[in-house]
Amino acid sequence: MEIHKKRVKIFLIIGILISLFKEMEAVPENSLMPNIEYKAGDLRDPFRSLRKEKQIKEQLPQKQIQEKPLPTLTIQGIVWGGASPQAIINNKVVKIGDTIDKVQIVDINKSAIIVSFENRQYNLPSTTAVLESLKAKLKGGNHEE
Question: Which residue positions in the chain have pLDDT lower than 50?
Answer without folding.
Answer: 144-145
